[in-house]
Amino acid sequence: MTVRSASTSLSLPLLCVALAGCGDAVATTDTPTTSSSSSTTETDPTTGVTPTTSTTTGDETTDGMTGSASESTTTTSTTTTTTTGPDTDTAVSATETTSTNTTDTSTTDTSTTSTSTTSTSTTDSTSTTTGDIEAPETCLTADFPVKVPLCGDGGPACTTLRDETVSANQKFRNDMPAIALDGDCEPVVLYSEAVNGYHGFYAERLGPDMWATTPTPMVVATGSLASDPDADVMFAMVDDGAFGTSLWRHSDGQWAQEGALVGMNHVRAHQLVRDGAGALHVGHVDSDFAVQHEVFDGAWSKEQVVTNAEIHVRLALDAADAPRLTSWSTADATWKLHYFAPPGVAEVVTPLGSNVLERQHHDLALVGPEATPWVLLARKQADQVHHDIVLAHRTGPATWETETLAAENSPADKVCDGPPQEAGITCDFDYRQLFPLALVAGETELRALYLAIRRQGTLVSQCEQNPLPFCDWNTQVEERTSELRVAWPGSQPDEHQVAAVDVFTDRATARLDTAGQIHLALYHLPAGAFDPHVRYLMLGGG
Predict the structure, then answer these.
(1) Half-sphere exposure (CA, 13 Å, Cβ side) for 494?
(2) Cα 496 to chain center, whole Å?
(3) Residue 74 lies in a domain
């Protein structure tokens, strides 16, 4: 019998059939506070313990949602001031297998088998890429920040340069895959499957449509990657699905555990960053949903920055390796996106405009010589149904300016409002939904990636006695299309460039290489599928 794995420490699957947000939200109302403490290294993650705070899963149901991108951009400024008060080194060798396939548009699926740390995983990837785009020669530490023009905003037109399937296996998964670039600017992807337990996989790109995929020796429910490109080393911070979080090093085809966080914690993609001195920074929440910033340089140090937070913390480092973090947190009985520059106080970037957090995925990037923080997010509209895609940046102490890149609920939408009054009625619908995907930053430029999914179809009414007569809409036929759009500060919706189509997800992880090309990893849910597969895209100027 096949069993889908889930735990209290994990979100529901990333992609529900209707593309729900499927994340973890905490229904609390306390004001954020800050404190600092230190901790020692623990060699074994804790397991099997439930959180001590009550949690509410903020699952978004998008059936019947009536969102669409509008053609207006608005800018507002908000000013807020919130005062807030020796490891086991076990090397394990994993057997590599290389999967290849041709570069036509045919689709082939093969199954993945993983029974132990020495078993192999073979996946025939499929792709719409013809040939390959030449990567830059190096993506070493000295090559960053990226100085070349990025696509869009007067630069080259944004287009799909690579479109490949890392794993064609359609499996139940959590959150999103992690991605990093090696010293040769080729991507590596860490992803998981949550069927009959949690299983991690490490995939390295060898060439066009060629990925070497191996199972990881550690349990991976979700994880994050950071690269040391100069030494050809990858680091992974992984969550075992039972509040245990451990740090691993991958070199010469072997995994070695570096340490583990003390206590019960959650880790997601994009929560591990390596600084210029080689120390590793982790931004995450503990089992009480307090945001923690921890640093590993042979031993762990920790400081708490805010409480009552949602699980998807974002972390970036400035040129001096000072950490910057963002997280949704509850305060004054509503959700607010907070920004932290430890040891300073927390600042409110923007309120959500609701006490129900459905699209919690957001991204953080630092731009320019002053490392100005920028945040991409989805914010609720006043009707509590639709969302705006918002880009925010800090203009001064506790002062943030926001602009709406795109908005749902266009006047052109066709929706089926209210329950039907009798059986056998049909109603046609046509509307769009918007999802923030990723931010990437060069030396002076910023690009925001978001997804616009168009849903068209027909609903038919059905009625039943339950125990009184009740009628509801049911989908008779539906077609989905999508555009992965690239935007930038000050841009209007009609200026945004479509870099890819037929992408179906609600979040992604991204890396920028030294040629200004954007590498994306995501869990993609094809039309008619129940579970997603793992997809890789490279976007840039063609």
Answers:
(1) 2
(2) 21
(3) no
State the distance between the two ends of the chain, measured CA to CA, in whole angstroms: 47
What is the tally of structural domains in the chain? 1
The answer to whether residues 360 and 376 touch, using CB atoms and an 8 Å cutoff, is no
Residue type, 53: T
**pLDDT band, very low/low/confident/very high, at 412 (cuts 50, 70, 90):** confident
In a domain, 420, yes or no: yes
Residue 381: inside a domain: yes
Q: Is residue 422 part of a domain?
A: yes
Count CB neighbours of 141 within 10 A. 14
What global pTM score does this model have?
Answer: 0.80
CA gap 170, 98 in Å, rounded: 19
Query: Among 84, 24, 27, which Cα is nearest to 340's?
Result: 84
Is the separation of the CB atoms in 198 and 220 below 8 Å? yes
Q: What is the CA radius of gyration of the chain?
A: 22
With CA atoms as reference, report the closest residue to 192 among 238, 152, 234.
238
Distance CA 212, CA 522 (A): 18
Please tell me the predicted confidence (pLDDT) of residue 527.
Answer: 85
Q: Which domain holds residue 496?
A: 370-504
Question: Which residues have C-beta within 8 Å of that of residue 466, sequence separation ≥ 6?
Answer: none
* Three-class secondary structure of residue 281 per DSSP: strand
Task: Please say whether the beta carbons of 351 and 392 come within 8 A.
Answer: no
For range 251-272, the mean pLDDT: 96
DSSP annotation of 142 reads G
Identity of residue 37: S
pLDDT tens-place string over residues 21-43? 333 333 333 333 433 333 333 33
For the beta carbon of residue 71, count every other beta carbon within 10 angstroms: 12
Q: Which two tokens stand for residue 523?
A: 């869990």
Number of neighbours of residue 230 by Cβ within 10 angstroms: 12
